[in-house]
Specification:
The chain is an alpha+beta fold. The protein folds into 3 domains: 132 residues, PH-domain like; 126 residues, Phosphorylase Kinase, domain 1 (2-Layer Sandwich), CATH 3.30.200; 182 residues, Orthogonal Bundle (Transferase(Phosphotransferase), domain 1), CATH 1.10.510. It contains 16 helices and 16 strands. It has a 5-stranded antiparallel beta sheet.
């Protein structure tokens, strides 16, 4: 039923078009809905509030404007898709939208067709308005705001060194390409050292609302120093790009090696697992939760040691008792507490550790289904299964890390990583030796591909591992590099 104090839908939105999107007002739409649990198939009653900034917020009890509680559900209708349906109940509608890195669907039910029409029209109206505002923002001044925001964050090379620019590097090889930009193998002219330069388009970052993620990654890279975390050498900006110059990790993705070998031995998994635990322990002690642990973000250096990459989803300022509510991460790796829209803390990283160590020893994900709704049900409800070949210690470790209740999960208590370090699976591990890289790796990359460089039209040599370069085979010749450096547009690279 519609709450009586709400005005006619269109009049409300038009009259309060200029209200501050961060303030609740009488104009906010508040309806008593029965949203279908996205991850558990049952209907749960909620009071929902639609705000002009696109926030769609759900409460268990009817909120009072003067004292609004923290919401149980909170997501944005920006760029959403709407669909009306009569299943599983009449007067149902579905909202499909992007939440951080994941596409999700939410199913809602109301009492009458008119109520459904009012809600879908209101949601579409807000989404359209946000789309127009985004287009106007990009057309008017796509980078002026971000220039000011990143000035202090980006220029880390100015304190002790001359500020770096694009012309300080030779551009050798396109390593990878994504939505927001690309990663290029570069050589610093002054030192001859090789780095991986991550180049992000400011316009795309703004359009995709990724400014916060980008600045978080910059801060984490700048403020952390650990042997198993990717380090940042320089960062700077041009008129239309943000540039991160990072150490070049040339041992390839762990995903590549596991795909080739299918499973790792328990001894090899213990080696990688110990280095991951050491890195996460360091991040947690710095009040940072990683939140995106997966095989694709785990790289190996030339000596076969671990390097964790991609810090865009990190959450800063999280202590032992602190929690978060953001729904983010990769679907197969999401912890149950994230799926249930509950507050969550550092234990999400230990769930991620459980998933990746399970993959290493078992050769598959602990929970998988192509249908995300079924996948999420498995994560929430299904018991974990093990191959017969696993030892009792390995089963105990995985069972502890993949406990669905974060408070009971291994590492979920106040001792955090220390609880995992004490587990029998890691008995005999000298954790100081792990940190000092005194433990010998099971794989060492020793091939120098000078012939590979010549074949690609690139002068000079560097230790490379083909798996680390498998994303894109497009080469940048020395002649092409000269063309690229003539301007800021990177038109040649954009065509790669």
């Amino acid at each position: 039923m519609i709450i009586s104090e709400c005005a006619v839908l269109c009049d409300v939105l038009q009259h309060h078009h200029h209200c501050c999107p961060h303030e609740f007002s009488v104009s906010s739409l508040c309806v008593y809905l029965s949203p279908s649990g996205e991850y558990i198939k049952n209907w749960r009653p909620r009071y929902f509030l639609l705000k002009t900034d696109g926030s769609f917020i759900g409460y268990k009890e009817k909120p009072q404007d003067a004292d609004l509680p923290y919401p149980l559900n909170n997501f944005s209708v920006a760029k959403c898709q709407l669909m009306k349906t009569e299943r599983p109940k009449p007067n149902t509608f579905i909202i499909r939208c992007l939440q951080w890195t994941t596409v999700i669907e939410r199913t809602f039910h109301v009492d009458t067709p008119d109520e459904r029409d009012e809600w879908t029209e209101a949601i579409q109206m807000v989404a359209d308005k946000l789309q127009r505002q985004e287009e106007e923002r990009i057309q008017c001044s796509p980078t002026s705001n971000i220039d000011n925001m990143v000035e202090e964050e980006m220029d880390i090379s100015t304190t002790h060194h001359k500020r770096k620019t694009m012309s300080d590097f030779d551009y050798l090889k396109l390593l990878g390409k994504g939505t927001f930009g690309k990663v290029i193998l570069v050589r610093e002219k002054a030192s001859g050292k090789y780095y991986a330069m991550k180049i992000l388009k400011k316009e795309v970052i703004i359009a995709k609302d990724e400014v916060a993620h980008t600045l978080t990654e910059s801060r984490v890279l700048k403020n952390t120093r650990h042997p198993f975390l990717t380090s940042l050498k320089y960062s700077f900006q041009t008129k239309d790009r943000l540039c991160f110059v990072m150490e070049y990790v040339n041992g390839g993705e762990l995903f590549f090696h596991l795909s080739r070998e299918r499973v790792f031995s328990e001894e090899r998994t213990r080696f990688y697992g110990a280095e991951i635990v050491s890195a996460l322990d360091y991040l947690h002690s710095a009040k940072i939760v990683y939140r995106d642990l997966k095989l694709e973000n785990l790289m190996l250096d030339k000596d076969g040691h671990m390097k964790i990459t991609d810090f865009g989803l990190c959450k800063e300022g999280i202590t032992d008792a602190a929690t978060m509510k953001t729904f983010c991460g990769t679907p197969e790796y999401l912890a149950p507490e994230v799926l249930e829209d509950n507050d969550y803390g550092r234990a999400v990283d230990w769930w991620g550790l459980g998933v990746v160590t399970y993959e290493m020893m078992c050769g598959r994900l602990p929970f998988y289904n192509q249908d995300h709704e079924k996948l999420f049900e498995l994560i929430l409800m299904e018991d974990i299964k093990f191959p017969r070949t696993l030892s009792a210690d390995a089963k105990s470790l995985l069972s502890g890390l993949l406990i669905k209740d974060p408070n009971k999960r291994l590492g979920g208590g106040p001792d955090d990583a220390k609880e995992i370090m004490r587990h029998s699976f890691f008995s005999g591990v000298d954790w100081q030796d792990v940190y000092d890289k005194k433990v010998q790796s099971h794989m060492r990359v020793t091939v120098t591909h000078r012939q590979w460089f010549k074949a690609q039209g690139i002068m000079g040599g560097v230790t490379l591992y083909p798996g680390g370069l498998s994303v894109c085979s497009c080469a940048i010749t020395p002649h092409s590099v000269c063309q690229v450096l003539c301007g800021d547009t990177f038109s040649l690279l954009d065509r790669c």
